[in-house]
């Protein structure tokens, strides 16, 4: 039995350090040229490579060959046993095996031999893959479960995709029908849109890296060459990819650099390959492939006819100039997507086109297209600018059901109506933030626990004598003074009493516009890790966030003209933003990134708990704000300046809510 340990955490410098990939000199791999390499039945697969197009050719030893079959039981440090099952496949770097946990659930363990992690570069590559993959969660991305190591291997435990990849499908089918490819493309595009929204470039998209899950949904895997761009306009210079799929600007190497558009190029290659039966630039010699790519020299063979609409899209995707390629959203507006569109991928597709796929009606196709997009996380507001939609929603009669009638403090009687989660989407967003910025999620969870414990302790000690030196110094905290819950479409918008304005978007990222500043912050969420904070100038916002910024501005105007404030302005002492919120029929609870909690009760009284539960603030409906040590309020049974109705009951409700959070977070 082999004992495995969790991997060491990564630091930020490691994350983007893939520029160190060693170029492989002149890789010649004719097997690779047909399609992607065959990974099944132990047939070795050719790895993606770092390429140096003009160097002499030499075969690269496959690192996965160093990976021995893992022991039959792999035990992790936290006592979990996994029983090793069948060999699933092999890449250039790893071998993949089935692993079954105690409950019988089966996973795929991507297994990398420690012997193959000989140098810092390889280690960095693996750590980067883990860090990036771990931070992703999307319906069309292979789910990362866990990773651990034993003496000989590192194991990356993944959701199992038992129906192989698009590469095997194409090998069996030779060509795939347009309706099926349409469906595949939407799922792939949904995943890539998600990746790019998180500044992740995959850089190795190919048929062999796109797997089928048990329900025949496509899942992008293998983040071995993925990279997180520090900002939208930064570029990568490492020459890497798989020969047939490499974009021309990557071959330009150090001179040109490359960015998100390399993934768009790869979409074009995959679409062509699926419809025509082989990649467009295929040749026996890798150098010939590169020459063809650099000249975009390919043709649509007459004996393998495809629709004109498909050709138009492929031509645009394979534009030599990356800037001429359509954006992810633009791709889905191409006429080709208006053709017959199935409701799902059937298992039958693994061997032949399911009957009737060409005859799906226009109406049904349009419904299927919309449903597939939304399952892939793509919301396309009928080509309308989101701000226009927001404006018309807010002005029309309809938003009453969408937008709770009373949204903000000091508003009308329906304010605290319980919100129907099916209307609003997720009601409790999980958000955390960059450790560099403030504190870590772990620390926040600790603060939550401390807050609960302090509140409980003070409850018991309220009859004891108070030592005034031990009382916390109390100052008014940063509060949410206005808010609009529009999470059914975009997100949750709020204004703080320092006048910063934020929108917690539905993708869990936040944009925070600092009051009176020329900068705004983009806080990009990574699950379990925290936030990456990118500061941008409002005068030169990156093109991808322009729309989001417009939404923030629109909300800002809406809040300023329609909603009244909870409290008067405070100076800007620190950068705080909303971590997450939850609503019940009695209150809305805000968790701030400095560890404070704010509760807006339905009787228009607001209470904020800060200093890990030692200080308490009350904001009255008439906006009088008072902050005191909690112990004093508990002793007196109420706030000294202005009485709060059912004060102790409210404090108890708060304590119980924080307790639930604390226990939930610690068990998560
Ligand atoms: N989630 C999964 N479920 C089932 N099989 C998988 C899964 N992930 C990978 N495999 C199998 O393992 C093989 C190797 O995995 P992967 O491509 O991720 O390894 P790699 O060595 O990083 O590959 P590459 O050479 O492309 O970098 C795949 O080709 C596939 O056959």
From TrEMBL:
Where ATP binds, per the record, is at 114
Q: Where is the composition biased (Polar residues)?
A: 394-411
PROSITE patterns given for it?
A: POLO_BOX (PS50078), PROTEIN_KINASE_ATP (PS00107), PROTEIN_KINASE_DOM (PS50011), PROTEIN_KINASE_ST (PS00108)
Name a biological process GO annotation. positive regulation of mitotic sister chromatid biorientation
UniProt-listed Pfam families: Pkinase, POLO_box
Q: What is its EC number?
A: 2.7.11.21
What GO terms are given for molecular function? Answer: ATP binding; centromeric DNA binding; phosphoprotein binding; protein serine/threonine kinase activity
Task: Cite the residue spans of the region called Disordered.
Answer: 1-29, 394-416
Q: Which domain of life is it from?
A: Eukaryota
In this protein, which residues make up the domain named Protein kinase?
82-337
The UniProt keywords, alphabetically, are: ATP-binding, Kinase, Nucleotide-binding, Repeat, Serine/threonine-protein kinase, Transferase
Q: Name one GO cellular component term.
A: kinetochore
Catalysed reaction(s)? L-threonyl-[protein] + ATP = O-phospho-L-threonyl-[protein] + ADP + H(+)
Gene3D superfamilies referenced in this protein's UniProt entry, alphabetically: Phosphorylase Kinase, domain 1, POLO box domain, Transferase(Phosphotransferase) domain 1
Which parts of the sequence belong to the POLO box domain?
479-561
> What SMART domains does this protein's entry cite?
S_TKc
**Which stretches are tagged as biased composition: Low complexity?**
1-17
InterPro entries on file: Kinase-like_dom_sf, POLO_box_1, POLO_box_2, POLO_box_dom, POLO_box_dom_sf, Prot_kinase_dom, Protein_kinase_ATP_BS, Ser/Thr_kinase_AS
Write out the similarity annotation: Belongs to the protein kinase superfamily. Ser/Thr protein kinase family. CDC5/Polo subfamily.
Protein name, please? Serine/threonine-protein kinase
Query: Which organism does this record belong to?
Result: Suhomyces tanzawaensis NRRL Y-17324
């Amino acid at each position: 039995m082999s004992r495995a340990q969790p991997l060491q955490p990564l630091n930020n410098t490691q994350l983007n350090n893939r520029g160190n990939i060693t170029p492989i000199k002149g890789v010649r791999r004719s097997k690779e040229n047909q399609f992607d390499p065959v990974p099944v039945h132990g047939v070795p697969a050719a790895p993606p490579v770092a390429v140096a197009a003009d160097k002499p050719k030499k075969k690269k030893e496959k690192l996965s060959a160093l990976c021995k079959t893992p022991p039959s039981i792999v035990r992790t440090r936290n006592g979990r046993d996994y029983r090793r099952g069948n060999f699933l496949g092999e890449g250039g770097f790893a071998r993949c095996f089935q692993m079954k946990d105690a409950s019988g659930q089966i996973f795929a363990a991507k297994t990398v031999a420690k012997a193959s992690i000989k140098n810092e570069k390889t280690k960095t590559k693996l750590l980067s893959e883990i860090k990036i993959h771990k931070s992703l969660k999307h319906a069309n991305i292979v789910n990362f479960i866990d990773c651990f190591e034993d003496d000989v291997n590192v194991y990356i435990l993944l959701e199992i995709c038992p129906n192989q990849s698009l590469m095997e499908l194409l090998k069996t089918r030779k060509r795939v029908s347009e309706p099926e490819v349409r469906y595949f493309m939407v799922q792939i595009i949904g995943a890539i849109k998600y990746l790019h929204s998180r500044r992740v470039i995959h850089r190795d998209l190919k048929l062999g890296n796109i797997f089928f899950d048990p329900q025949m949904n496509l899942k992008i895997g293998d983040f071995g060459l993925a990279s997180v761009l520090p900002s939208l306009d930064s570029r990568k210079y490492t020459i890497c990819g798989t020969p047939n799929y490499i974009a021309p600007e990557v071959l330009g190497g150090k001179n040109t650099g490359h960015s998100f558009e390399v993934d768009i190029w790869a979409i074009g290659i995959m679409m062509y390959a699926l419809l025509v039966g082989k990649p467009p630039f295929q040749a026996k010699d890798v150098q010939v492939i590169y020459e063809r790519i650099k000249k975009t020299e390919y043709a649509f063979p007459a004996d393998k006819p495809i629709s004109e609409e498909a050709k138009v899209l492929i031509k645009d995707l394979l534009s030599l100039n990356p800037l001429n390629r359509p954006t992810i959203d633009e791709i889905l507006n191409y006429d080709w997507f208006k053709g017959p569109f199935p409701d799902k991928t059937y298992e039958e597709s693994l061997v032949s086109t399911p009957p009737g796929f060409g005859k799906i009606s226009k109406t049904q196709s349009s419904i299927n297209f919309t449903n597939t997009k939304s399952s892939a996380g793509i919301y396309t507001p009928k080509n309308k600018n989101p701000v226009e939609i927001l404006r018309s929603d807010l002005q029309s009669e309809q938003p009453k059901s969408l937008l709770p009638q009373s949204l903000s403090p000091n508003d009308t009687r329906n304010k605290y109506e319980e919100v129907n989660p099916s209307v609003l989407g997720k009601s409790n967003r999980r958000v955390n933030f960059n450790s560099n910025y403030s504190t870590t999620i772990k620390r926040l969870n600790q603060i939550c626990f401390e807050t609960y414990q302090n509140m409980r302790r003070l409850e018991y000690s309220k009859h004891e004598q108070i030592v005034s030196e031990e009382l916390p110094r109390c100052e008014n905290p940063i509060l949410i003074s206005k808010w609009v819950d529009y999470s059914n479409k975009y997100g949750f918008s709020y204004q703080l009493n320092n006048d910063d304005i934020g929108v917690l978007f539905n993708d869990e990222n936040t944009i925070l516009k600092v009051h009176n500043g020329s900068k705004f912050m983009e806080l990009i969420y990574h699950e379990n890790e925290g936030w990456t904070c990118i500061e941008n100038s409002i005068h030169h916002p990156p093109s991808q966030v322009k729309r989001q910024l417009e939404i923030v501005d629109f909300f800002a105007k809406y809040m300023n003209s329609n909603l009244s404030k909870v409290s008067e302005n405070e100076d800007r002492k620190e950068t705080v933003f909303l971590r997450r919120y939850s609503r019940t029929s009695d209150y809305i609870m805000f968790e701030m990134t400095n560890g404070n909690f704010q509760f807006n009760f339905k009787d228009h009284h607001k209470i904020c708990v800060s200093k890990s539960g030692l200080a308490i603030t009350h904001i009255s409906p008439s906006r009088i704000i008072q902050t005191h040590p909690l112990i004093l309020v508990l002793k007196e049974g109420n706030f000294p300046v202005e009485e709060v109705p059912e004060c102790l009951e409210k404090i108890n409700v708060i304590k119980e809510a924080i307790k639930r959070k604390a226990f939930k977070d610690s068990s998560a």
